[in-house]
Amino acid sequence: MLSSKIPSELTEGLGHILKEKIRRLLMVTSEINTFLSPSRPLVMAHRGDQTVSPENSLLALKNASLLEIDFIESDIRITKDHELILFHDDTLDRTTNASGRIIDYTLNELESEVDVGYHFTLDDGETYPCRGKDWRVVTLRQAFQIFPSMRFNLDIKNSESEAPRLLADLITEFGRENSVLIGSFHHDQIVRFRKLLPHIPTAASPNEVKNFIIRHKIRMNRLISPKYLALQVPVNYNGTRIITPAFISDAHKRNLAVHVWTINDRPTMEWLIGLGVDGIFTDDPWLLLEALQEKELI
Question: In CATH, what number does 33-294 get?
Fold first, then answer.
């Protein structure tokens, strides 16, 4: 007859594994997540204030900083000489007077040749009020220097392996460990960054978001121990509703913030405020602040 008793060396091993899982879960759930915002959503100015200024320009950043926003969201890209600039697209064509990939330009070439306000218009192309006004690319170094108290949500755009290291070096140099949240659509990049600066808060990569959603649907999220502090997602993706009360509740139970991008209409803002999301990315921070003010949340 086979014994039902489990050998002691196995139980000790299982006990160690269980204790480690519990320790990690307690560590995550007890950690203070400053990106959770129970009273109101964080106002996250998407590439600065784009209502009256070119995206990711110094003007857009300054205009956003004058408002009661909580974060400036921006994207970082590498130049040919390994400098980091705030720029969304891989190429210069859509927003500037130049063309070609950013990584093929040195910082000096970008600063001397590229007008980031060239295509900015408020009247569908009738006029271009920022064209020729000397609005140049902004480096991350400049942003940290000019806005020492501003919090930044930074998205690593490049897939080149050196990007996370360059970002980590600047964060450390300027002591910005407590004022940044890092994300990337490239899972490998966010993994590299976490290895360099494991104590810096990060958002879930698309792979991690997908994994969370799958586990949410089958009610298995209680078993996860995420390395991220925020789920940054759209309301819908590929015809599927992502933002629901159940999704938000599940995230909050895991001590995870829910930030929604990119919302520029008042009704959706008010709906999300009512749902209790933790942050809203918007091109129009004025509109979101107005909605929050009318609800007496700021």
Answer: 3.20.20.190
